[in-house]
Amino acid sequence: MFSQIGPGEIILVLAIALIVLGPKRLPSAARSIGHGLREFKHSLSEVDPREAEQDEHAEPAPVPAPAPKRAPAKSSAE
């Protein structure tokens, strides 16, 4: 996840967060972010049973027939 972020960038972000939030609110903010990320990941991996049931019983979409080929138009000059 953090393959493109170096340790310097992480330290910089943490220092800015400490300055902006302060030492009292930083732990609760980190907890809130962690809880939100965990809930987001859980919702991505969770499958609604109704959706799974609909997918099992769904018929594949019909393939449209190809359009008939047109004959070349005759010119009226002939």
Largest sheet: none
Q: Please give the number of β-strands.
A: 0
| Low-pLDDT segments | none
Helix content: 55-70%
Order of helices and strands: HH
Q: State the separation between the terminal residues, measured CA to CA.
A: 71 Å
Overall spatial form:
elongated
**Class from helix and strand fractions:** mainly alpha
Nearest-integer average pLDDT: 81
Instruction: Tell me the β content.
Output: under 5%
Rg from alpha-carbon coordinates = 29 Å
DSSP helix count?
2
Any overview of this molecule?
The chain is an all-alpha fold. It is built from 2 helices and no strands. The protein has helices at 7-45, 49-57. The mean pLDDT is 81.
From the structure above, extract its key features.
single chain; 78 residues; mainly alpha; elongated
In short:
The protein is mostly helical and 78 residues long.
Chain-wise SSE layout:
Layout: H1 7-45, H2 49-57
